[in-house]
């Protein structure tokens, strides 16, 4: 108690220094509280939006070297070459997932991307300038029943209706529909047909013609999602080459693959002549041959048959969000035990770029705060050192009349802790006030980048408990660290010297 | 005075002579490489008649493994037309790429639909581009920025650095190694607008068909994804005249019936 009294008296005595140190702490903590609360609001906003509308709580995917997200594979140039893996043994995985008591709903889904254009434009015009009304869309291949149950009301229909079970068709995102219309006025309506063209490594380039069933916009305004159209799963499977049969083993003769090893200029051009005279085949390409050049094509249909059990993702909603991590562990244990090449993970991986962007920005913000904290510590430390030096004779006298080293240490510690806590609390209150104001007013996102981070066009930040606790921890650390050096100086003071100085 | 005028006239003639002699020589140096480009095109084009062949394409991909395609190629260079019909693998049989002038369509026999595609795109999922299968048009699409002489393996070559003259081409910059002796292209490095190497192509074997040279072995190496490449071997070459209907959409549909 005595220590606290002395500490309080010292702080009162050195008002200006106390105020300098205190203001630095208060402002720092205020920034920390506001920044982290904003980040937390944005992250939990994005999280809730994704949980409720796009990813569910858990995502199950096949295993790939790069990151698998609902929007395809993410990574460098080599990832562009990878395809989204299917969930192996889908039936078994589905049965296991739905047998778990924690699981509420599931939704199987597949990803695709395609060039899209209005059907008929290819025939009407021989001119490729018509390609202007051709654009690119990402596709979610779905089963309408599962999808609607899992994500009821996640989208607004601008025109038309939702897909029906077993129906082939596409729900165009409003942005894509506008692009196809060549302007802001929609000249596409339900019933129109579109061509989807895509490439896969099994059946090569694929074209599918599907009717537009509806035009929609997702409720969350996320630019990443605005390129996503929703199609029936069979169309997406056909475009992706998700068929029952897989690639046959290829037998090569030496000549056909002679250059596929490591060849360089020397190996290729080290020999002599490269030209051979060829006597062209004559008389082989008569009319009969030309019209029957492909021979029998009946096997093709069988080979191109899509696999009704082929899915890229199984999205899971649990009854209680506290069980998310437990369910993820259960699922991954099950995959390991049954040697299924699949993986369960949380929404952040599924959401891909958007979620990681928000998380990375929070990380950068905290790094900046850390740097500011270090600077603050140095300033505070200097101020306390000055105040300690001013009190050398006083501390010396205290020591001379019997004060232990530990007493002096505790006294200075108490001073800094007191400043930190009092001004830290002021900072938190100020932060809370600013946040309350911002919450009422709302912060509009200045551009698309911020729209992604905010999870919408306006952010209404809420004071988050974690930011308050976090800030208090930071305050205590700053207090303790900043007082270490001044304490060391104070303890070096010899009572005799100090008293001589005073004299 | 007369003597002076005579001298003046002589001097003028002399200066003119020098100018006449000097100008073509500098011009010659500049046009020389462009001429080579023209010669390359002329040598590779079947301007007189049609051309058809069967291409075997073996693609290697570090992620997707090895893939084989057999493709029937029909070309009519004088009208800038071609048709590529996939014969193997069975699942892709009948897929076709039809070029008529500036238009290139892809046909999917399964959905019986045509879709416009671009010459800049890859041919199916190989490392060849759709533009690799038409008539050679280097001299129309590129100018020689720099030319030099060198060696490639045992061959004496010209090395031409090309810059595209239009946006329709697949690659904005190219470096071409061409034999001095008969203007055969041996190697091509293909670059992006930022001069990043995207692909390297090799043409180690040619067939002489009449007066035209056509590569019979080609190797395309993707420089962005390590280990990704495609070898193409050309067989069953024919220069028989083809009926006009071969280069139509209805033919592509008909052979798929």
Protein described:
The complex is a heterodimer of chains A (503) and B (257). Chain A has 2 domains: 2-49 and 355-502, no CATH class; 86-244 and 307-340, no CATH class. Helix content of chain A is 51%, strand content 18%. Chain A contains 19 helices and 15 strands. In chain A, the strands form 3 sheets. In chain A, strands 4-5-10-7-9-8 form a 6-stranded mixed beta barrel, surrounded by 4 helices. In chain A, strands 2-3 form a two-stranded antiparallel sheet. In chain A, strands 14-15 form a two-stranded antiparallel ribbon. The two termini of chain A are 30 Å apart. Chain B is α+β, with helices and mostly antiparallel strands. Helix content of chain B is 21%, strand content 45%. Chain B has a 13-stranded antiparallel beta sheet, with helices on both faces. Mean pLDDT of chain B is 84; it is low at 23-31. Chains A and B meet through strand 8, strand 9, helix 9, strand 11 and helix 10 of A and strand 1, strand 2, strand 3, strand 5 and strand 6 of B.
Which helices and strands, and how do they pair?
The complex is a heterodimer of chains A (503) and B (257).
Chain A: H1 2-13, H2 15-55, E1 58-62, E2 67-69, E3 72-74, H3 77-80, H4 90-99, E4 103-118, H5 121-124, E5 134-142, H6 144-150, E6 155-160, E7 170-173, H7 174-181, E8 193-200, E9 204-218, E10 228-232, H8 233-240, H9 265-269, E11 275-277, H10 287-291, H11 298-303, E12 313-318, H12 324-337, E13 342-346, H13 347-351, H14 353-390, H15 392-400, H16 405-441, E14 443-444, H17 448-454, E15 458-459, H18 465-492, H19 495-502
Parallel strand pairs in A: 5-10, 7-9
Antiparallel strand pairs in A: 1-12, 1-13, 2-3, 4-5, 4-8, 4-12, 6-9, 7-10, 8-9, 14-15
Chain B: H1 2-44, E1 51-61, E2 65-76, E3 81-88, E4 96-100, E5 103-108, E6 113-116, H2 138-141, E7 142-152, E8 155-164, E9 173-179, E10 185-191, E11 197-209, E12 212-222, E13 229-238, H3 249-255
Antiparallel strand pairs in B: 1-2, 1-13, 2-3, 3-4, 4-5, 5-6, 7-8, 8-9, 9-10, 10-11, 11-12, 12-13
């Amino acid at each position: 108690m005595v220590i606290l009294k002395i500490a309080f008296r010292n702080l009162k005595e050195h008002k200006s220094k106390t105020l300098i140190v205190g203001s630095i702490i208060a402002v720092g903590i205020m920034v920390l509280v506001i920044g982290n609360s904003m980040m937390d609001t944005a992250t939990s906003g994005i999280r809730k939006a994704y949980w409720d509308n796009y990813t569910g709580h858990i995502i199950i995917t096949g295993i790939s070297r790069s990151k698998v997200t609902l929007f395809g594979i993410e990574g460098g140039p080599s990832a562009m070459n990878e395809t989204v893996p299917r969930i192996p043994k889908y039936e078994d995985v589905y049965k296991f997932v739905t047998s778990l008591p924690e699981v509420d709903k599931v939704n199987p889904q597949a990803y695709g991307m395609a060039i899209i254009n209005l059907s008929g434009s290819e025939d009407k015009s021989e001119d490729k300038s018509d390609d202007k009304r051709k654009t690119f869309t990402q596709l979610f291949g779905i089963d309408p029943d599962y999808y609607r149950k899992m994500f009821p009301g996640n989208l607004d229909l601008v025109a038309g209706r939702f897909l029906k079970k077993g129906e082939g068709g596409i729900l165009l995102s409003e942005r894509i529909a506008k692009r196809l219309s060549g302007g802001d006025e929609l000249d596409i309506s339900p019933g129109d047909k579109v061509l989807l063209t895509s490439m896969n490594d099994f059946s090569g380039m694929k074209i599918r013609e599907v009717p537009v069933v509806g035009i929609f916009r997702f409720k969350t305004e996320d630019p990443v999602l605005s390129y996503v159209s929703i199609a029936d799963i069979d169309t997406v499977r056909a475009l992706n080459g998700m068929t029952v049969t897989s690639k046959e083993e290829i037998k090569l003769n030496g000549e056909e693959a002679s250059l596929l090893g490591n060849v360089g200029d020397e190996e290729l051009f080290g020999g002599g002549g490269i030209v051979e005279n060829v006597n062209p085949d004559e008389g082989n390409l008569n009319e009969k041959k030309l019209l029957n050049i492909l021979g029998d094509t009946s096997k093709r249909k069988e080979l191109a048959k899509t696999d009704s059990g082929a899915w890229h993702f199984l999205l899971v909603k649990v009854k209680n969000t506290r069980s998310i991590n437990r369910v993820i562990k259960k699922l991954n244990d099950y995959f390991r035990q049954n040697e299924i090449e699949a993986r369960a993970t949380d929404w952040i991986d599924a959401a891909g770029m958007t979620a990681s962007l928000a998380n990375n920005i929070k990380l950068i913000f905290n790094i900046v705060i850390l740097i500011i904290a270090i600077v603050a510590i140095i300033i505070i430390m200097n101020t306390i050192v000055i105040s300690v030096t001013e009190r050398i004779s006083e501390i010396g006298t205290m020591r001379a009349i019997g004060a232990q080293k530990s007493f002096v240490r505790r006294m200075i510690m108490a001073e800094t802790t007191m400043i930190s806590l009092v001004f830290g609390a002021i900072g938190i209150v100020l932060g809370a006030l600013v946040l309350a104001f911002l919450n009422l007013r709302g912060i509009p996102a200045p551009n698309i980048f911020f729209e992604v981070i905010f999870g919408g066009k306006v952010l209404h930040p809420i004071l988050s408990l974690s930011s308050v606790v976090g800030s208090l921890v930071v305050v205590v650390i700053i207090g303790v660290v900043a007082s270490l050096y001044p304490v060391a100086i104070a303890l070096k003071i010899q009572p005799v010297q100090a008293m001589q100085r005073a004299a | 005075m007369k003597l002076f005028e005579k001298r003046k006239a002589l001097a003028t003639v002399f200066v003119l002579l020098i100018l006449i002699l000097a100008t073509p020589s500098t011009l010659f140096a500049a046009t020389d490489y462009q001429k080579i480009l023209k010669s390359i095109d002329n040598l590779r084009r079947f301007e007189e008649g049609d051309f058809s062949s069967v291409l075997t394409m073996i693609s290697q991909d570090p992620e997707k493994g090895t893939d084989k395609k057999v493709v029937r190629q029909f070309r009519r260079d004088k009208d800038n037309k071609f048709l590529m019909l996939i014969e193997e693998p069975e699942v892709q049989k009948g897929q076709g790429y039809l070029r008529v002038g500036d238009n290139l369509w892809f046909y999917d026999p399964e959905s019986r639909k045509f879709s416009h595609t671009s010459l800049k795109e890859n041919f199916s999922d190989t490392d060849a581009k759709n533009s690799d299968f038409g008539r050679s048009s280097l001299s129309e699409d590129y100018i020689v920025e720099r030319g030099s002489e060198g060696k490639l393996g045992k061959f004496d070559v010209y090395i031409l650095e090309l810059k595209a003259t239009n946006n329709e081409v697949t690659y904005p910059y190219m470096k071409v190694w061409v034999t001095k002796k008969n203007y055969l292209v041996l190697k091509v490095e293909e670059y992006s607008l930022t001069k990043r190497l995207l692909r390297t192509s090799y043409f180690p074997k040619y067939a002489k068909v009449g007066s035209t040279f056509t590569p019979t072995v080609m190797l395309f190496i993707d420089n962005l994804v390590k280990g990704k490449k495609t070898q193409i071997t050309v067989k069953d070459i024919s220069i028989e005249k083809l009926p006009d209907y071969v280069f139509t959409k209805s033919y592509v549909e008909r052979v798929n019936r």
